[in-house]
Amino acid sequence: MAQGDPQPLVSVIVVNYRGADDTITCLRSLASDLDYPDVELICVDNASGGDDVARIKAAVPGVTLVESPVNSGFAGGCNLGAEHATGTILGFLNNDARPAPGWVSAAVAELRAQPRVAAVASKVLDWEGTGTDFVDAGLTWFGMGYKRHAGSPLSAVPPAEHDVAKDVLFGTGSAMFVRASVFAELGGFDERFFMFYEDVDLGWRLNLRGWRVRYVPESLTYHRHHATMAAVDAPDSGRETFLLERNALAALYKNLSDESLAKALPAALALAVRRATARGDLDATQLDLERGVGPAETGDVAIPRTTLAGMLAIDQFVELLPSLVESRAAEQAARVRTDADLLPLLRKALEPAYPLPRYLAAHDILVEAFGIEAAFGQRRKILVITGDALTERMAGPAIRAWNIAATLAAEHDVHLVTTNPHVSPPPAPFRVSAGKRHELDAPIAEADIVLLQGHVLELAPSLKKQYASKIVVADLYDPMHLELLEQGKGIADDKRAADLAGVTKVLDAQLERGDFFLCASERQRHFWLGHLAALGRLSPRLYDADPTTQSLLAVVPFGLPPETPARTGPGLRSALGIGATDHVVLWAGGVYSWFDPLTLIRAIEKLRRRRADVRLVFLGMKHPNPEVAEMDIGARTVRLADSLGLTGKHVYFNEQWVPYGERQNWLLDANCGVTTHFEHVETTFAFRTRVLDYLWAGLPIVTTDGDSFADLVRAERLGVVVPAEDADALADALETALYDEEFAAGCVERIAGVAQRFAWPEALKPLVEFCRDPRPAADRLAGSADLVTTKPARGKEMVRRDVALVREYLNDGGVGELARRAGGRVLKIARQRLRRG
After folding, report:
1. Which of 762, 615, 629, 639 is nearest to 695 (CA)?
2. Number of neighbouring beta carbons within 10 Å of residue 367
3. Distance in angstroms between the alpha carbons of the first and the last residue of the chain
4. 460, 401, 408, 409: which is closest to 425 by C-alpha?
5. Separation between Cα atoms, residue 169 and residue 204, nearest integer Å
6. How far, in Å, are 12, 72, 210, 771 from residue 90 at the CA level?
């Protein structure tokens, strides 16, 4: 750590129960051996009786000693200690453990460097440092959490398994750290566990909520394993076995998804019975009539305590169920990760864990009979919501949503929903439906990830309230408010301003709620980063988690089909009566007010005087979504073509959009593609979606300068870029693209390579990667809080600060400024005291 760098206060909690000797050794080591200065020591005595409290007070006077009136176990003792802690980080250390000097500092460094890490799992060796206690975590499908490699000589464990930091499902309660704010958010350890598996349960819950638990080998401790347990209970009493068995079932019940639990819990209960009988070597057939009928035996049957422990554990799990039901509901509502997401952290979920022959046979039977392997590989559920019409004729937003769904469906169960009433989609390898506002909650409840476009968030308010923990991906490829600046020119000023404010509010809500954002270009990325910064989303916590912000905002351009277009029917020449040798310019998108088709019409008028066989085709004049209002620019374009005598001769308007699945037939009939627009802010950040079809069809491109697509055409030499509203330059560019065969052939060759970069699977890679490992944004993780806070001024420091403020106020505005500031401070203090009262 840098000299003078403020560090968070760490409260280390040690629980004592009739183990004063070990506890004193532990506390003294914490007080003297650590290289981290800001440590608060808290010792909780769990109603030990005797002289434990007095001895600890005398031996370690600097410790905060909390006396519990009852023995509430390790879980309750740690929670009680956390209630008395003032640090922003909680450290938990068994009383029979001792820390290495860097135990705290290594953990603090990790927590400060990784805002998404909620807990640090320490490396734990035996007392001599030669044996392994905790270097990794594992969990079986039936809920048994275990420490991988525990009991092995350290020399026998591969260095990669114990010397490398990694994510784990849980850390051992004998030595771990947790952000205090997150520990409080989760309600601490589950005290129903008493001891054993409370650490497994906590880590499992953290991971389900999107936090990470990180094993940090430099955070090192040494542990006399079960020294405390051995002092208060005999190994063969069955009590430890009882707790392990009961708590495993409780953790399983709380944390598995509905689908997984339905298969795993019945099998886990059956396996617990077989484990109990096998552990006690109990003859499970002794009451079976098939063995023959002899003299009635009614005497008691001896049952080993290890067998009884398993049976009683199931019985007491049933007793816990009423309270566990409520806990389960809370955990399932808060989870943002699937069981499949956590599968790598389970390490070997199908490992039987106990080498008992009868038990192993039952394990294999149950795994097969209940389909356990498939239960832990459930596909993630992704909901894609669009407001656009899903029909044979689709506009840009619907096309984008459709291809997002199609690409993600290869790995996940995808449901594409439109809030638009017009739904008659082509066949799809995913579910497609329509839903009004009140019908969105059901698919949202089922989903693990919700991806939305446009105004959808306003139609799904449950994502802000009831399902506020759901992971949301917001597709920002369409900067709606910039479009509205141009689109709204023909309406009253006050309504135009109100409409713009409303759309901006919609976008603000998305930017404040989302966990991951998609935009269409690097230009857009800079624009949206500015918007995020203005809203306060680019916080230190987000920045520290990822200074590049790539994990928050990724460029996902509009894409192309990965297959080259193949003709399936007649195209524009047949439909519009255009000759086979005519040279066709195609306008592939809609005609909207931010475009400039008027200059294009004038350019065709100029070009047709030199080239009588030039033809301009507008692919679709009427938007496929009936809810999109007609724009005046379309009518103006038709009127201009009519007035110049071009309509039906050199300019053709296709009134209805071509079905999406047939557009390649029209594209393949063209000789070049064109897009023209005005020079304004919408152009600067727009991404012309349908224009990408020119790349797909291998058409040389003529485009107006000013947008990101023009940058691409210029950089890759895919056609000609012309100034805005320059009909002469546009006419010359069209002539080059249409009639210069060598130029056109070069463009086509270069386009083939560029088109591959825009294929949907390639374009959507950032989204695909996010959906493989989805997590809430760092600033949206429940329980996030600052680790290092400014300490309030006291005593002389406060006086010096006030004197400095007085001088500053006098210099700024004299006595009047001083009186104004002082009066404001008095009012602030008064309000604070009133609130406390």
Report:
1. 762
2. 18
3. 42
4. 401
5. 6
6. 6, 19, 20, 32
Tokens 């509009």 belong to residue = 558
CA distance 541 to 783: 13
Distance, CA of 824 to CA of 820 (rounded, Å): 6
DSSP state of 192: G
Apex CA 491: angle with CA 488 and CA 494, to 5°? 95
Q: How far is CA 554 from the centre of its chain?
A: 13
708 neighbors 688 (Cβ within 8 angstroms):
no
Look at residue 691 in the predicted model and tell me its pLDDT: 76
> DSSP class of residue 193?
G
* Packing angle of the helix pair 708-716, 522-534 (nearest 10 deg): 150
Amino acid found at 324: L
Tokens of 53: 């409290």
Q: Check: CB of residue 767 under 8 Å from CB of residue 474.
A: no
Written as one string, the DSSP assignment of 647-680 is BTTTEEE-SBPPPGGGHHHHHTT-SEEEE-B-SS
Instruction: Decide if 279 contacts 361 (C-beta within 8 A).
Output: no
- Of the CA atoms within 13 Å of residue 419, those in its CB half-sphere come to 21
Residues of the chain with pLDDT under 70: 1-4, 225-235, 622-631, 823-837
Residue 92 near residue 13, CB atoms below 8 Å: yes
| Two structure tokens written together for 542 | 């987000």
Residue with tokens 């003032």: 86
- For the chain, helix (H) and strand (E) counts, in that order, are 33, 25
The string over 664-676, giving b where at least 16 C-beta atoms fall within 10 Å of a residue's C-beta and e elsewhere, is bbbbbbbbbbbbb
Token reading at 414? 């995808």
pLDDT in the model for residue 828: 56
Quick one: which H or E segment has residue 71? Answer: none
188-222 burial: b if 16+ Cβ within 10 Å, else e: bbbbbbbbbbbbbbbbbbbbbbbbbbbbbbbbbbb
Alpha carbon distance 726, 709 (integer Å): 18
How far lies 666's CA from each of 426, 447, 575, 596, 754, in Å? 19, 38, 9, 22, 21
| Cβ–Cβ under 8 Å, residues 338 and 235 | no
Please give the single-letter amino acid code of residue 729: A
Token pair listed for 638: 């038709």
449 neighbors 414 (Cβ within 8 angstroms): no
Q: In what order do the strands lie in the sheet with 413-418?
A: 431-434, 413-418, 381-386, 449-453, 471-475, 516-519, 553-555
Check residue 451 and give its pLDDT.
97
How many CA atoms lie within 13 Å of 18's alpha carbon, on the beta-carbon side?
A: 13
Residue whose C-alpha is closest to residue 27's, from 15, 35, 17? 15
Structure tokens at 171: 């850390």
| Residue closest to 152 by CA, chosen among 170, 136, 141 | 136
The pTM (predicted TM-score) of the whole model is 0.82
Strand 701-704 with 719-722, pairing: parallel
Residue with tokens 């603000």: 508
Strands lying side by side in the sheet with 701-704: 651-653, 614-618, 583-587, 672-675, 701-704, 719-722
Taking CA atoms, 340 is separated from 353, 380, 764, in Å, by 21, 8, 22
